Structure formats: structure tokens, C-alpha cells
Amino acid sequence: MRTAWPGLLLTLLLTLAPDAPGHADTGFGIGGGQALPDIRLELGDGSNALLSELAGQQPLLLTFFYRRCTGVCTPFLSLLHDATARVGGAGSDYHILALSFDEADTLQDLRSQAAALGLADTAGWSFATTTPAQLRLITGALGFEARPAAQPGQFDHAALLAAVRQGQLIDRMTMAAGRSDLRRLHALVRELRGEFIPVLPRPGRMALGCFRFDARTGLILPDWGLLLLAAPALGSLGALALLFVRSGPPR
Predict the structure, then answer these.
(1) 40-43 and 125-129: which strand pairing?
(2) Which of 176, 163, 229 is nearest to 203 (CA)?
(3) Which residue among 14, 31, 158, 185 has its CA within the 20 to 30 Å range from the CA of 173?
(4) Around 144, how many Cα atoms within 13 Å sit in the side-chain half-sphere?
(5) CA 197, CA 217: separation in Å to the nearest integer?
(6) What is the pLDDT of residue 235?
(7) In the chain, what are the domain boundaries?
(8) 135 vs 137: CA distance, rounded Å
(9) What are phi and psi of 144, to 5 degrees?
(10) What is the CATH number of domain 26-197?
């Protein structure tokens, strides 16, 4: 019975040992959140990098696009450019990665997309492609879906923006074509930059709130919920005042 303990101990250690870092099927997050797969990227300048090399040292904003898109891709990238320029910190506080999900996109397509948005030489922005197998890993982890559309060369998809810190997904938002939620977008960028967001707006989660956060100004403003919360007290005070006026002064 004593001779079995070394084998059992070795089996237990091998079972509990973490996977080696740097492989596409292993996450690189630190802590208890959802770790993302450490996929390999080919950047628009021709260099190669792991996702952990972009997201390991700085927080990361990750979104998907493809060059031939005639729908939401370019408008959303423009909105993201505007939001990050307004909030500030791109390149110093966080990095932005636009990852193509179209196998037909080449490095020249990446450079053309960056140039079209005025981002060719903008610090903090990277455009990249990856292999189909690596792409399936990251889109599956983030819940991003793109289906071929009726029009050749087009895909039906929503715009997705994921906020990643230390290799972990901390928040995400989606935006359909023809609809924009700038409050949510600005708040997400501020949150990733490290600002405290007391009320982060999430569409469909809360109809009324006592306060709302203005992501563009950084101010906390009263909302309709505060008035409804105070309505019973205000009504009671009004009834007492009316009763006092009708009864007249004490004799």
C-alpha cells in the first residue's frame, strides 16, 4: 500500500498542473474571470504576435471587422475611433485591436482599412488577421457570430466590442447595424481606462434608475427613478400642507 503513494501523488500533481502558456487552446487570464484563448495574430505591418502580447501589458479593446463590409463595420470602427479619441488614453492606457474574420482579407486590406479610417499611423491601434482555426477559438469565446449574407462577399453580423484586462474578458457590448449607443460605448472605454463608472448603462437591463452616468462628460445626473422614489414623500408633504391651510391657524 505504501508503494502506491508516490504514483498517486504524481498523478495528482500532473492533474492539477497548469497548461503551458502560449498555446492557442489555453487562456492567458489571471484571476477568476473568463480567460481568452491566446491566439496568434498577423498584424497589418507584417509582424506576428500572440494576443497575450497585446493584452498582457495593457488593457485591450477587441472588435471584429472585414474589409469588404458594406454594413456596420466601418461605421462602428469610426464610432470607436471617435469615442477613444474623446475619452483619451489610446496607446498609453489601453490598446485597440481590430481583427478581421474574413479569410479573403490580406495584409494590404488591413492597411487599406486603417488608411480609410485615418488610423494608419495612429498609436494604440492594430489591425490583424488570423487563421480560421484560431478565429473560431476567439469568436467562440466571445460569442461573436457572422453568417454569409444573400449578397456575395457579405456577412450578417453585429458589431462586438470586448474589454479585456490581463487576458480576461471584463465586459462586452454589441451594436446592430443602424443603431448606436454612444453612452454605453463611452462608458465601456472609460471603464477599461480605469475610471470608476458608478452606473454603467446596459440596454434592456433597467427601465428607470435614480441616477445616470453621462459617459461623455463624466457627470452623475439625477434620473426619473429618483423622482418616482421621492413621489410618496412629496405627496405626503403636500397633503399635510393642504390640510394645514384648510384647517387655518391654531386658536
Answers:
(1) antiparallel
(2) 176
(3) 31
(4) 25
(5) 12
(6) 72
(7) 26-197, 206-251
(8) 5
(9) -90, 130
(10) 3.40.30.10
CA distance 47 to 134: 17
Mean pLDDT throughout 1-9?
48
State yes or no: pLDDT of 29 exceeds 70: no
Say how far apart CA 139 and CA 37 lie, in whole Å: 10
Exposed/middle/buried for 231, CB within 10 Å: 0-12, 13-18, 19+? exposed
Burial class of residue 205 (count of CB atoms within 10 Å of its CB; 0-12, 13-18, 19+)? exposed
Does residue 127 contact residue 28 with C-beta atoms inside 8 Å? Answer: no
Bridge partner list, 175: 159
Residue type for position 203: P
pLDDT on residue 25? 43
- The letter for the amino acid at 220 is I
Which residues partner with 127 through β-bridges? 98
Taking only the tens place, the pLDDT of each residue in 154-203 is: 999 999 999 998 888 988 998 876 566 778 888 888 888 877 666 544 44
